[in-house]
Specification:
heterodimer, A: 79 residues, alpha+beta, Glutaredoxin, 3 helices, 23% strand, B: alpha/beta, Alpha-Beta Plaits, Fe-only Hydrogenase (Larger Subunit), Chain L, domain 3, 3-stranded parallel sheet, 21 helices, 15 strands, 39% helix, globular
């Protein structure tokens, strides 16, 4: 599974660093680093809905507050 | 109001703008010859002896605007017919000499080159004069002047001489492509090649312009951009770039953050290091101090490391660097950098590109630009790289005492490099920038000035990320 977080300026201001950090921690805590590849890219062209994250090219709008929920529903549940 | 420091810059801007305008419309080839008359209309000459010469020179500027002489590897070229064959007499005594009794000039000259005629007026013996200028400094009447050509004065690597026609000529083996002569020639006879046609081509094939099939084109902008487009807000410049067709705009300063982290490590491992961010400085070491090459940091420049990151994470990416620097144009052609950076524009050319689309930047909404830390951003001015490397040592808990030697301008770099080669350098890290003041005074800047440093520092403080570690933590 490939998870890509937008680190373009707009998403960065909305907290992509916190999203990346939390995802890193969650992946480690749940021992799924062999199944999930975390990456970053500049601009997923949905700046209004940032922080933009794609899971295998499916778009999700995430914020530092909703990362836990997003990880459980969209990543852990679908591995 | 658009602002150019010199009328030469404004003239070149007009040429590049017209070339770009036609290129966007795919009408360049059939209308190329109409540009000189458009820029020099009417019958009255305003710059040269007649409008025909003015137009001929515009024709030469057009050649450079569309990429210049492909057989000349140097990105800096002389427009021979624009060179006014300035006098080259060296130091001369003018008629301001009063024939005083003090003879400070004679006392100051270590080479015995000053003599006096029976009117007590000073003369310089050219066979003895070493062009040091000491006599000129001590004359209370400022009667001794340097007749050195402005281009030769500007060229601290001494790559400029004159040919049989008395036109300036550049020794490519010495030239570091810093662009000092481009900015200093009062006749605009030396110019950097423009790759704006390549950029327009890339943008035309971008995803923004050709929907799904196109490339994602990224603009990497140098932090000195913060002091450049004074008539609009930085956010409006970012919106303008996106309207041109750039997929996203990213701060080169993020690459600087990456470099600072790596540079701190490398310095602690090697013990002695010179920076590698400024391509003109690196080229200067290679051409003039080949035995010091081992000390050059192995890191690529911020532009190149960030471009590499983009290309490695985004398969269909194209990267254009936009900055104040002519030497970056040469750097982008190096085999090691070529795969990552597709083209380079100066701020001057970006202004032309905006205006070729008739963009009214102040009416645009404000986009955002925030990728890097304070430390990455202040790379743009002299001393910033050192501050960032020192900070990166701290953040990575590297136990090493950095003793920086901050050099801006080739003369300062030269001094430090000579000391290093003789083992007499009181320091272990040379920050080398070819331009005095750092990148904020690059030849491709729209404005040059002391206040630009304050602008860059202010822009640095506005960065969301306060540490380098935080700024680079998003990179995978």
């Amino acid at each position: 599974m490939k998870v890509t977080v937008c680190i373009g300026s707009s998403c960065h201001i909305k907290g992509s660093r916190q999203v990346v950090e939390q995802l890193q921690n969650l992946i480690a805590e749940n021992n799924v680093s062999d199944k999930v590849t975390l990456g970053s890219t500049f601009c997923l062209e949905n700046c209004q809905q940032g922080v933009c994250v794609t899971v295998d090219d499916v778009f999700h709008s995430v914020s530092p507050e909703t990362v836990g929920e997003f990880f459980a529903n969209e990543i852990l549940a679908k591995i | 109001m658009r602002k150019f420091d010199t009328k030469i810059q404004h003239l070149n801007y007009k040429v590049v703008r017209e070339v770009a305008r036609l290129a966007w419309e795919d009408k360049l080839l059939e209308n190329l010859m109409s540009i000189p008359e458009k820029i020099v209309p009417g019958k009255e000459a305003t710059m040269r002896c007649c409008v025909y010469k003015e137009r001929a020179i515009i024709g030469e500027r057009i050649k450079l605007a569309v990429g210049g002489n492909k057989d000349n590897p140097n990105v800096i070229e002389v427009i021979e017919i624009a060179c006014d064959e300035c006098p080259v007499g060296g130091f001369e005594v003018t008629n301001a000499c009063r024939g005083c009794l003090a003879h400070h000039c004679e006392d100051a000259c270590s080479f015995g080159a000053i003599t006096f005629d029976n009117q007590h007026v000073a003369h310089i013996d050219k066979s003895k004069c070493k062009e040091c200028g000491t006599c000129a400094k001590v004359c209370p009447y400022a009667a001794i002047v340097s007749r050195k050509r402005p281009c030769q004065n500007a060229c601290k690597v001494k790559a400029i001489s004159m040919n049989e026609e008395k036109a300036a000529t550049i020794d490519n083996s010495k030239c570091i492509q810093c662009g000092a002569c481009v900015y200093q020639c009062p006749f605009g006879a030396i110019l950097d090649k423009s790759y704006i046609l390549d950029v327009i081509d890339i943008l035309k094939n971008s995803r923004t312009h050709t929907a799904e099939k196109g490339n994602k084109v990224y603009a990497i902008v140098a932090p000195s951009i913060s002091s450049q487009f004074s008539y609009a807000k930085l956010g409006q410049v970012i919106t303008g770039l996106k309207k041109l067709g750039f997929h996203d705009v990213i701060e080169a300063a993020l690459g600087a953050d990456m470099v600072a982290m790596a540079e701190a490590k490398e310095l602690s491992e090697k013990g002695v290091l010179t920076s590698s961010c400024c391509p003109a400085f690196v080229q200067y070491i290679k051409s003039t101090f080949p035995n010091l090459v081992e000390h050059i940091s192995h890191n690529m420049s911020p532009m190149a490391v960030l471009a590499k990151y983009i290309k490695e994470t985004t398969p269909d990416a194209k990267v254009v660097f936009i900055g104040p620097c002519t030497a970056k144009k040469a750097e982008a052609q190096l085999e090691s950098v070529k795969p990552y950076v597709d083209s380079v524009l100066t701020f001057e050319e970006l202004q032309a590109l905006f205006d070729s689309r008739d963009f009214d930047l102040p009416s645009f909404e404000e986009g955002v630009l925030d990728n890097a830390s304070y430390f990455g951003r202040i790379f743009a001015r002299s001393g910033g790289l050192t501050d960032a490397t020192t900070q990166a040592m701290r953040e990575q808990n590297i136990d090493f005492e950095i003793k920086p030697v901050v050099c801006d301008g080739i003369e300062a770099c030269r001094l430090a490099l000579i000391k290093l080669s003789k083992g007499m350098l009181d320091g272990n890290f040379i920050e080398g920038m070819a331009c005095v003041g750092g990148c904020i005074n690059g030849a491709g800047c729209l404005t040059h000035g002391e206040k630009n440093k304050a602008e860059v520092d202010k822009y640095g403080r506005e960065a969301l990320e306060k540490t380098i570690t935080d700024a680079v933590s998003v990179l995978k």
